[in-house]
Specification:
Low-confidence stretches: 5-17, 151-156, 497-505, 622-634, 644-668
Bound molecules: 2-acetamido-2-deoxy-beta-D-glucopyranose
Strand content: 15-25%
Distance between the termini: 135 Å
Number of helices: 14
CATH superfamily of the largest domain: Transferase(Phosphotransferase) domain 1
CATH architecture of the largest domain: Orthogonal Bundle
Structural class: alpha+beta
Number of domains: 4
Mean pLDDT: 80
Largest sheet: 8 strands, antiparallel
Number of strands: 29
C-alpha cells in the first residue's frame, strides 16, 4: 500500500506539468474549423473567407475543438492561471477602391462559437449594443480594424490594431505599423496579405501583438506589448478563432490564408510558399507608383468629365428656356428667350400693354441694350413650318423705315412665338381717333396719313421685295410722341395664311378693310392694301369705324352717299370742328373713294397715291370717267367707274364674312 500512497503523494505534489498543444494550417480544410455565419472555405486552396464584400454580414471560424487555457497552479494555494499561448496567422483584406471598406477582422477567444444575438458592423458579430463590455461575455478580441472606432472610444483611428476585453472598447490600441529599422506605418487594406503574431505570457501577463506585411521577417519589436490581465475573461476551456463583419455601407472581404497555434509553446512558423495565394485586390487599390499615376489621370479625367456633365446639365437647364433647332442658330434677328423673359419681367401682367386676337403685347426693356421694346407673344402659334416662318421673319427683320413699326427680332419658345418690335409710346391710331377726351387735329391726321402712305409705298415698291401688308387698319398704326405714324404687323398676315390648308379659301384681314376681290379669290395684292388704305383715309377724316359694330353703318356707303349729295364735308369728324384745311380734307376723302373702287385695276398705286397726297399730281380728271360732264366737281367724282357696284359687293361680303375672316389685331 505504501508505494501506492507514495505514488499518489508524488502525483499530488509534483508541479502540474504544462499541457502543450499546437496546430498549423496552410490553407484550411473544412473539418479543421467550425464555421459560423457567412464564413466559408474557398476551394481549391482552402482560403478561409470570413466575409464577402456584402453589406451587413459577419462570419466566424473557430478551431473545431475547445482548448483548455486555464491551469491550476500547485498548492499550497491553488490559483487559476492562464496558460501562455502563441499564434501566428496571415490575413488579407480586400476593400473596394472607393474607400468604403470595413468593418473589421479579429482574432477571437470565446467560450462559444455561436452568437445569435450579436450585431454586425462595428460589433464584429460578437457583441450587441446592450451587452458590449459586459464582463459576462468572456470574450477576448484582438482587432485588426480598418474603420474608425466606435463612438467616442479609444480606437478612434482607422487602420489600427487593438486588444479588447468583453467588448469593442480597446484596452490598448495602436495604428498599424511594423518595426523595420524605423517604425513603418502601413495600410492593412493595401497589403496583399498581413502576418500577425500574438503572444501571451501566462507568467508575466505580457500581451504582445506584432504585424508585418506578408514576406517581411517578423519584426523584433511588437506593435503592442503590454501587461494585460486576461484571467477574468478566460474560462477553463475556450474556442480560438476569427471573426469578421461588414457594415451598412462599408464592406470588405476578409480572408485568412494560414494559421498556426500553440499553447505553452511557440506557434510553428508558417511557410509562405505553402499558403494559398492572397486574393486579388480590387483594381485601383494597388500602391505601385505607376498605378497611382494611372489612377491620378483617371480620377482627373473623371473630374473633368463630371464638370462637363455639370456644364451640360446647366446648359440644358438654361436651354429649357431656349430649345434651339439647328437652323435657329444663325438667325441674326433671333432673341434669346431668357433676355425677353428678363425684359418683360417674366411676362407679368403689369407689363401687358395690349391683348389681341393672337396674343398679348408686353412692354419691356432689353437687358443688354436698355432699349424699350414691345414684345408680342403669340401663343400656340399656328405656324407649322417654323423654318419657313423664320426665314420670312428674318427677311422682314431687315425692313427699316421711319413709318414702320420695325421688327427687331423674334424668338420661338415651345409653341409660343415672340416678336420684338420698337416700342411706340402713344398707342394705336384707332384708340386716338375714338378717344372721347382727346382729338387729333387735322394737321396731325394729315401727317399720319402721309406717313402711312410712305410706309406702304416702301413695302410695295421701295424695298427689294414686294411686301403686301394684308392688314392695313387703324389699330395697326401706332403713333409716336411726335404724332408720326408707324405701320405695324406688316407681312405677318401672309405668314398666317401660310398655315392654311388651302390658300384660296383663306381670307386674311379685318372686316371693313377687305377688298371685294379678296373675298372671291383670297389673293391679296398691293391693290387690296390700297383698298384698305382707302378705308383708312375715310376713317381718319370721319373719326368713325369703317363698320359699326351693329353692322348697320358702313362708312364707305355713308361717305359715298354724302359725296353724291354734294355734301362730302358733312362726314368730317365733329371733333375737328371747323379747324381744318378744306382742300386737304376733300382730297383725302376723294382719294379714299378712289382707293376703294370695286375694280382693283382702277385703284391707284401707292406711288401715285403719294403724289396725290402731296399735291404733286391733281386727282385724275373725271374726263376719263363716263361722267365727263361734271368735271372735277365732288359729286361727279362720286360716280367713278365701278364704284357703286364695288360698294354693294363689298358691303355684301362684309356681312357674309362672319367666320371665315381672320382678324389680326395688334395691341401695340
Ligand atoms: C481534411 O482533413 C481531414 C482530417 O483532418 C482529412 O481526413 C481530409 O482528407 C482533409 N481533406 C482535404 C481535402 O484535405
Ligand atoms: C444582446 O445579446 C444578449 C445575449 O448575449 C441578449 O440577451 C440581448 O437581448 C441582446 N440585445 C439586443 C439588443 O439584441
Ligand atoms: C451583463 O449581462 C448580464 C447577463 O446578460 C446581466 O444580468 C447584467 O445586468 C449585465 N450587466 C450590465 C452592466 O449590463
Ligand atoms: C486594461 O486592462 C488593465 C489591466 O487589466 C486594466 O487595469 C485597465 O482598466 C484596462 N483598460 C481598459 C480601457 O479596459
Ligand atoms: C513580448 O515582447 C517583449 C519585447 O517587447 C519581449 O521581451 C517578450 O519576450 C515578448 N513576449 C513573448 C511571449 O514573446
Ligand atoms: C516551405 O515549403 C516548401 C515547399 O514544400 C519547401 O521546399 C521549403 O523547404 C519550405 N520552407 C521551410 C522553411 O520549411
Amino acid at each position: 500500500m505504501a508505494p501506492k500512497i507514495l505514488c499518489l503523494l508524488i502525483v499530488l505534489f509534483l508541479p502540474v506539468s504544462s499541457f502543450a498543444f499546437s496546430f498549423q494550417f496552410h490553407g484550411f480544410n473544412q473539418s479543421d474549423l467550425t464555421l459560423e455565419g457567412d464564413s466559408k472555405i474557398v476551394k481549391p486552396k482552402g482560403t478561409l473567407e470570413l466575409t464577402k464584400r456584402v453589406n451587413n454580414i459577419f462570419g466566424h471560424a473557430f478551431y473545431n475543438k475547445h482548448i483548455k487555457i486555464i491551469e491550476k497552479t500547485n498548492a499550497p494555494s491553488p490559483q487559476p492561471k492562464v496558460s501562455s499561448f502563441s499564434t501566428c496567422f496571415v490575413f488579407s483584406i480586400v476593400s473596394p477602391s472607393s474607400g468604403l471598406g470595413g468593418f473589421g477582422l479579429a482574432f477571437t477567444v470565446a467560450p462559444k462559437t455561436h452568437f445569435p444575438e450579436a450585431e454586425g458592423g462595428h460589433f464584429l458579430g460578437l457583441f450587441n449594443s446592450s451587452n458590449d463590455m459586459n464582463a459576462s461575455n468572456h470574450i477576448l478580441v484582438v482587432e485588426f480594424d480598418t474603420v474608425n472606432g466606435y463612438k467616442g472610444n479609444v480606437d478612434t483611428k482607422g487602420n489600427h490594431v487593438g486588444v479588447n476585453l468583453n467588448g469593442m472598447s480597446s484596452n490598448v490600441t495602436q495604428p498599424a505599423a511594423y518595426e523595420k529599422g524605423t517604425n513603418e506605418d502601413f495600410n492593412m487594406e493595401d497589403a496583399d496579405a498581413v502576418c500577425a503574431w500574438i503572444e501571451y505570457d501566462g507568467e508575466t501577463e505580457i500581451f504582445n501583438v506584432t504585424i508585418a506585411p506578408l514576406g517581411e521577417l517578423k519584426p523584433s519589436k511588437p506593435l503592442i506589448s503590454k501587461v494585460i490581465d486576461i484571467k477574468s475573461v478566460m474560462r477553463e476551456n475556450m474556442y480560438f478563432g476569427f471573426s469578421a463583419s461588414t457594415g451598412q455601407r462599408k464592406a470588405s472581404s476578409h480572408y485568412i490564408l494560414g494559421w498556426s497555434f500553440a499553447v505553452n509553446g511557440v506557434a510553428p512558423p508558417l511557410n509562405v510558399s505553402l499558403l494559398p495565394k492572397p486574393p486579388p485586390k480590387e483594381k485601383g487599390s494597388s500602391s505601385s507608383p505607376w498605378f497611382k499615376v494611372v489612377v491620378g489621370i483617371l480620377s482627373a479625367s473623371t473630374f473633368i468629365l463630371l464638370c462637363l456633365l455639370l456644364l451640360v446639365t446647366l446648359y440644358k437647364r438654361y436651354m429649357r428656356f431656349e430649345t434651339l433647332e439647328d437652323w435657329e442658330m444663325d438667325c441674326p434677328h433671333r432673341f434669346s428667350y431668357r433676355d425677353l423673359h428678363i425684359a418683360t419681367k417674366g411676362f407679368i401682367d403689369s407689363q401687358l400693354i395690349g391683348v389681341g386676337g393672337f396674343g398679348s403685347v408686353y412692354k419691356g426693356v432689353l437687358p443688354s441694350t436698355g432699349t424699350e421694346v414691345a414684345v408680342k407673344k403669340i401663343m400656340r402659334s399656328p405656324m407649322n413650318g417654323m423654318r419657313e416662318f423664320a426665314a420670312e421673319i428674318e427677311s422682314l427683320g431687315r425692313l427699316r423705315h421711319k413709318n414702320l413699326v420695325n421688327l427687331q427680332g423674334w424668338c420661338k419658345h415651345k409653341n409660343d412665338l415672340l416678336l420684338v418690335y420698337d416700342y411706340i409710346p402713344n398707342g394705336s391710331l384707332d384708340s386716338l381717333l375714338l378717344n372721347k377726351t382727346f382729338a387729333l387735329d387735322w394737321d396731325q391726321r394729315f401727317n399720319i396719313l402721309k406717313g402711312v402712305a410712305a410706309g406702304l409705298l416702301y413695302l410695295h415698291e421701295e424695298w427689294e421685295k414686294v411686301v403686301i401688308h394684308r392688314d392695313v387698319k387703324s389699330s395697326n398704326i401706332l403713333i409716336d410722341g411726335d404724332f408720326n405714324a408707324h405701320l405695324g404687323d406688316f407681312g405677318l398676315a401672309r405668314l398666317y395664311s401660310h398655315d392654311q390648308v388651302s390658300h384660296t379659301t383663306s381670307v386674311v384681314g379685318t372686316i371693313g378693310y377687305i377688298a371685294p376681290e379678296l373675298t372671291r379669290t383670297g389673293k391679296a395684292s398691293t391693290s387690296s392694301d390700297v383698298y384698305a388704305f382707302g378705308v383708312l383715309l375715310l376713317e381718319v377724316v370721319a373719326g368713325r369705324r369703317p363698320v359699326h359694330s351693329s353692322g348697320q353703318f358702313l362708312l364707305l356707303d355713308w361717305v359715298l352717299e354724302n359725296c353724291q349729295l354734294g355734301q362730302i364735308l358733312e362726314v368730317v369728324d365733329p371733333k375737328l370742328g371747323s379747324v381744318y384745311d378744306e382742300e386737304q380734307v376733300e382730297l383725302v376723302l376723294k382719294l379714299g373713294l378712289l382707293c376703294t373702287q370695286h375694280k382693283a385695276d382702277y385703284r391707284p398705286s401707292m406711288k401715285q397715291l403719294t403724289r396725290y397726297l402731296n399735291f404733286d399730281d391733281p386727282l385724275p380728271g373725271i374726263s376719263e370717267s363716263r361722267h365727263s360732264a361734271s368735271q372735277s366737281s365732288p359729286t361727279s367724282f362720286c360716280f367713278l367707274e365701278g364704284m357703286s357696284t364695288g360698294l354693294i359687293a363689298s358691303s355684301q361680303s362684309v356681312s357674309s364674312f362672319g367666320r371665315s375672316t381672320m382678324s389680326i389685331e395688334t395691341g401695340i
